Structures are given as structure tokens and as C-alpha cells.
TrEMBL record:
Name of the molecule in the record: L-rhamnose isomerase
Any single GO BP term: rhamnose catabolic process
EC numbers: 5.3.1.14
Assigned keywords, A-Z: Isomerase, Manganese, Metal-binding
């Protein structure tokens, strides 16, 4: 049997990167609701993200999106973040909000459009040098809406050529992570729809290219933990974009739609070495808070990941392996479920207190007055949105 004491030290190394865009206003194509206190600048997004780390100790990095978080002086943005106790993390490129990319970016049949898209990524690498970021995350909106609209095969060939040029621009300690998504905004075909396509491309590029798994980017019913196990086995799982979905790419709070799925994913992460010291797997959130409070939403998210990580670590793997080898079907299943059903919340509250953190980070944040302060201070300004 594995007890909470056995795993307490392992919880120390949990680090979950927050997306700057989670702090901006977001919505659907029907409506974006404004929220009082929403940041107006990249600095204010970072300041809000730093609050999440302050109360949980779980979120030491903030991922940025270019050009949403474009600034003149990235070194200054970096020291601003450092002064607040956080670092700048993954740099996300953006080729989905420019008219030039209407028919594709890295896959475009137009050499000038491809050039522009590759150059954007090379500029992102430049930003990474100044922010101290390790990862360049590429998600492409490229795809087609109608059968026959584009030549699927040559789009793949052009994608490889473009990615190769970007890969060649990486510094020695930098990585490229290629995210996949099976639909949206393209409706018929997507140029990087699944983990296999991402894997084919990153494998062709070399060791500094890995796959990014966004939990919201799969068809309903997909066994995501199987993909996790496979990518870890292949040494190509670079990062996670965590979120939850009910129907589509809903970007809801991780662990809110299906906590059991999050547990199963994290169990495979632990099982496959993805949580080991020095593991190459980066944990990130990729979420939007359309109607709920954003800082509290991010607090809830990192706490959900911590809770499920604790439960995944609690699985008695020796007993599980023995039961599996005995073909004890329900015995093995029972061992996994025992860990899943363990309520770790009181243990985690005590664990936090023993490390100088509040037992209840959300209550502590709410009591701090920060939210009221930013509502007052930021009134009347132009709020940043998902995309600005
Ligand atoms: C695309 C995506 C990708 C983007 C982010 C804003 O759906 O998951 O990671 O960069 O959303
Ligand atoms: Mn994502
Ligand atoms: Mn997404």
C-alpha cells in the first residue's frame, strides 16, 4: 500500500505553466463577456498569473502568445516576471488571426505566405532567446473545408519543409513542440489532426522536436491515456495543454468535465516516467474562462492537476503489476480505482501548510483583496481579450 507520506516529496516538483491568455477576456463566436479587473497589458496578465503561484506554489511559469503578448522589450518583460517570482515559459506562435493565412500558413501553396509564416516562427525563436524560454509551441489552423479544396499530400510535404527551416533556427537548448487538433477552424481536413501526424513530423525533424498533447483536441471517446503511454514510450511527449471538454474544444477547467480521465492520463504520465526528475514533459494549461473568475479559475485548475497527480502517485504499482501478471482483471482494476477514490484533499491542505502555503489557496486569495484592487485599478481601461 502507498500512503500520502510516501508521495509527499514527489509533489514538491510539480510545476504547471499558466497561459497568459487565460487571464484575458474570452468567449465564443456568439459573445465575449467582459469581466471587471481583466488585465489590459501583458504585464498585468503576468501579475495575475503570479498570484496563482503565490498561493499554490504550483505555477512558476507563464506561457506567452505572440503577437497577443508582443512588447518592445522582452528582457524587461522577463525581469518584470522574475520580480514577481515567476518565469516566462513557452512561446506560442500565432498564424491563425492574419488574413494572409486564410488558405494556410506553413502549408500554404503560396511561397510568399509560407515565407511570412516561417519568418514569424523565427521571430518567436528570437523572442525565446530574450525571454529565456525553452519551448516554441506550434499549433496550426491549417486545413481545408471541402474535399478537393487542397492537395493533402503536397500540404504535408510543404509542412515538413517549413518545419525543417524553423527547427534549424532553434538554439541548442530550445525545443519545438507540435500540437495536433482533429478539427476547427478547418472543418474537412486539418493538416496536423492527430498524434501520429505530429509524431511523423517531429520524428523527421530530430531530437529537439516533440509532440504537444492538448487534452481538448480529440474526438469524443478517444483513449487519451493510450496516446500518452505511446508517446512516452517513443520519447516524443514534449508537453501537455491541459483543459476539459464536453463537446468540442471547450477549453474548460482541467479535471472539471471528467476527473477520472485526468487521473488516467496522469497515471500513465507517472507510469511512463513523465513525472520523473528531469522528465522532458512540460505541463501547461490551455484554457479560457468565459464566465467564471479568471484567477480563481486558474487556481482551481492547478489544484485539480495537483489532486489528480497525488492520486496517480498513490497507485500501488507493485500490487498492480502483480495483479496484471496474474490476469486478475478486477483485482487490478480495483487497485487503480482505490487510488482514484482516495480523497487527498485534507492531506494536501496539511502538506501545503507544512510548506508555508495556505491550506486553502482559493480562500486565501479571495481574502487577500487582490481581486477588488484590480477591479478598481483597471476600471475604464481597454481589457485584453483572447487575441489582444
Ligand atoms: C488551439 C489551441 C492552441 C492555441 C490555443 C490558444 O485550439 O489549443 O494551443 O495556441 O488554443
Ligand atoms: Mn492548445
Ligand atoms: Mn485548443
Amino acid at each position: 500500500m502507498v500512503t500520502f507520506n510516501d508521495i509527499a516529496a514527489d509533489l514538491e516538483r510539480q510545476a504547471i505553466e499558466l497561459p497568459s491568455w487565460a487571464f484575458g477576456n474570452s468567449g465564443t463566436r456568439f459573445k465575449v463577456f467582459g469581466t471587471p479587473g481583466t488585465p489590459r497589458t501583458p504585464e498585468e496578465k503576468i501579475a495575475d498569473a503570479a498570484q496563482v503561484n503565490r498561493y499554490t506554489g504550483l505555477a512558476p511559469k507563464v506561457a506567452i502568445h505572440i503577437p497577443w503578448d508582443a512588447v518592445d522589450d522582452y528582457a524587461a518583460l522577463r525581469s518584470y516576471a522574475n520580480d514577481l517570482g515567476v518565469e516566462l515559459g513557452t512561446v506560442n506562435s500565432n498564424t491563425f488571426q492574419d488574413d494572409a493565412y486564410k488558405f494556410g500558413s506553413l502549408t500554404s501553396s503560396d511561397p510568399a505566405t509560407r515565407r511570412k509564416a516561417v519568418d514569424h516562427h523565427l521571430e518567436c525563436i528570437d523572442v525565446m532567446h530574450r525571454t529565456g524560454s525553452q519551448d516554441l509551441k506550434i499549433w496550426l489552423a491549417d486545413g481545408t473545408n471541402y474535399p478537393g479544396q487542397g492537395d493533402i499530400r503536397s500540404r504535408q510535404d510543404r509542412l515538413h519543409e517549413s518545419l525543417q527551416e524553423i527547427y534549424d533556427g532553434l538554439g541548442d537548448d530550445q525545443r519545438l513542440v507540435l500540437e495536433y487538433k482533429f478539427f476547427e477552424p478547418a472543418f474537412y481536413h486539418t493538416d496536423v489532426p492527430d498524434w501520429g501526424t505530429s509524431y511523423a513530423h517531429v520524428s523527421a525533424l530530430g531530437p529537439k522536436a516533440l509532440t504537444c498533447l492538448d487534452t481538448g483536441h480529440h474526438a469524443p471517446g478517444t483513449n487519451i491515456e493510450f496516446i500518452v503511454a505511446q508517446l512516452l514510450r517513443l520519447g516524443k511527449l514534449g508537453s501537455f495543454d491541459f483543459n476539459s471538454r464536453f463537446y468540442a474544444d471547450d477549453d474548460l477547467i482541467v479535471g472539471s468535465a471528467d476527473p477520472f480521465q485526468l487521473f488516467r492520463i496522469l497515471f500513465e504520465v507517472v507510469r511512463g516516467g513523465g513525472y520523473d526528475v528531469g522528465s522532458p514533459v512540460a505541463f501547461m494549461l490551455d484554457q479560457c474562462h468565459n464566465i467564471e473568475d479568471k484567477i480563481v479559475g486558474q487556481l482551481r485548475s492547478v489544484l485539480n492537476v495537483q489532486e489528480m497527480t497525488a492520486r496517480a502517485l498513490l497507485v500501488d504499482r507493485d500490487a498492480l503489476l502483480a495483479a496484471q501478471n496474474d490476469n486478475d482483471v478486477l483485482g487490478a482494476n480495483g487497485i487503480l480505482m482505490d487510488a482514484f477514490y482516495t480523497d487527498v484533499r485534507p492531506h494536501l491542505a496539511a502538506w501545503r501548510e507544512s510548506r508555508g502555503l495556505p491550506a486553502d489557496p482559493i480562500a486565501a486569495f479571495k481574502a487577500s483583496g487582490y481581486q477588488e484592487r484590480i477591479v478598481a485599478e483597471r476600471a475604464g481601461g481597454v481589457q485584453a481579450g483572447w487575441g489582444a
